[in-house]
Design a protein that fits this description.
The protein has one domain: Orthogonal Bundle (MetI-like fold), CATH 1.10.3720. Helices cover 76% and strands 0% of the residues. It has 301 residues and is an all-alpha fold. The longest helix has 40 residues, at 2-41. Helix 3 packs across helix 14 (269-300) and helix 8 (161-188) runs antiparallel to helix 11. It starts with a helix and ends with a helix.
C-alpha cells in the first residue's frame, strides 16, 4: 500500500515538475500584465504621476471618456471593417490554393513552399515593402496601373482614407493567405479518398463533391481557421503603424494603434489601458464563441 502511495506521489511530483515552468511563464508574462493593465484602467495614470506612483482610483471614468470620444468609435468600426474584408479575401483565396496544391502534380510541394515564405516574413518587413509599393512617386503599383492605362495620374494610396484602408487590407491579405492555405491543406489530407470515389460512382460532379463532402468534413478546420484569422487580424498593430500610423486623420486608426497612441504619444496610460482592455474583451468573446461551437460539435459526436 505504501509503495502504491509512493508511486502516485512521485507521479504527481513529476506532473507538477513539467507543468510548473509553463505555469510560471504564463503567470509572469501573461496573467500579471493583464491584471496590471486592468487595474491601471481604473486609476489616473499619466506621465506626471507614473514614476512617483501617486495615482488614485477613478472607477469607470476612463471608460466613459474613451467612449465619448468619436475616435474610439471610429477605431472600433475600422477594426471590424478591416477584419471583415481581410477574411472575405484571404480565406477563399487560401482555400482555393489549398485545394489546388492538394492535387498531385509535378512541383506542387515546391510551389506550396514558395507560398509559405510570405507567411514567414516578419510583418514589419511586409509593411515596409507594401508601403513602398503603394508610394505615389516610386511605387510599383502606380507604375503597373499607368503602364496598363488603368489610371492616368499616380494615385496617392496612403494619403486618402479609402485607398489607405484598401492598401493595408491588400498587404494583410497577402500575408494571411499562406496561413489559411497551410491549415486547410493539412486538413484536406485527412479526407478519405474513397469517399470521393464513392461519390463519383454515384454520379456526383466536382461542385457537388465540394459542397457535400469537402466542406462538411472540413467544418472543424474551417471554424478554427476563421477564428484564428479573426483574432490575428483584429489585433493588428505593426502593419497599420508602419504603413499609415492610423492616418490619414483617423481613417485607418485601429483599437491597437489607438491604445498605443494614448499610452506612448499622449502619455495617458490609463486611457491606453482602457482601450486595450476593450480589445481584450472583444477577442475574449470571440474565443468563448469558438469554444462553445467546438464543445457543441464534440457533444454531437
Amino acid at each position: 500500500m505504501k509503495k502504491k502511495k509512493g508511486y502516485f506521489f512521485r507521479k504527481k511530483m513529476t506532473f507538477f515538475a513539467f507543468v510548473l515552468p509553463g505555469a510560471i511563464y504564463m503567470t509572469v508574462m501573461i496573467i500579471l500584465p493583464i491584471l496590471s493593465n486592468i487595474i491601471m484602467s481604473f486609476q489616473d495614470v499619466n506621465l506626471m504621476n507614473f514614476a512617483s506612483g501617486d495615482t488614485h482610483f477613478i472607477g469607470l471614468a476612463m471608460y466613459q471618456d474613451i467612449f465619448r470620444d468619436k475616435v474610439m468609435w471610429t477605431s472600433i468600426w475600422n477594426t471590424l471593417w478591416f477584419t471583415l474584408w481581410c477574411l472575405i479575401f484571404q480565406f477563399p483565396i487560401g482555400f482555393a490554393m489549398a485545394m489546388f496544391f492538394s492535387k498531385d502534380f509535378k512541383g506542387s510541394r515546391f510551389l506550396r513552399g514558395i507560398n509559405v515564405i510570405a507567411w514567414m516574413i516578419p510583418m514589419v518587413a511586409v509593411s515596409g515593402i507594401f508601403k513602398y509599393m503603394f508610394n505615389s512617386d516610386i511605387g510599383i503599383i502606380n507604375r503597373i496601373l499607368l503602364d496598363l492605362h488603368i489610371i492616368k495620374t499616380p494615385v496617392e494610396w496612403l494619403a486618402h482614407g479609402n485607398t489607405a484602408m484598401a492598401s493595408i487590407i491588400a498587404a494583410n491579405v497577402w500575408k494571411g493567405v499562406p496561413f489559411n492555405m497551410i491549415l486547410l491543406a493539412t486538413a484536406l489530407t485527412t479526407v478519405p479518398a474513397d469517399v470521393y470515389e464513392s461519390a463519383s460512382i454515384d454520379g456526383a460532379n466536382q461542385i457537388q463533391r465540394f459542397f457535400y463532402i469537402t466542406v462538411p468534413l472540413l467544418k472543424p478546420a474551417i471554424i478554427s481557421v476563421l477564428t484564428l484569422g479573426f483574432i490575428y487580424t483584429f489585433k493588428v498593430f505593426d502593419l497599420v503603424y508602419v504603413m499609415t500610423g492610423g492616418g490619414p486623420g483617423s481613417s485607418t486608426e485601429m483599437l491597437s494603434t489607438l491604445a498605443y497612441r494614448y499610452s506612448f504619444n499622449e502619455y495617458n496610460f490609463s486611457q491606453g489601458a482602457a482601450v486595450a482592455n476593450v480589445l481584450f474583451v472583444l477577442l475574449m468573446l470571440v474565443g468563448v464563441f469558438y469554444i462553445r461551437i467546438v464543445t457543441k460539435e464534440d457533444e454531437e459526436i
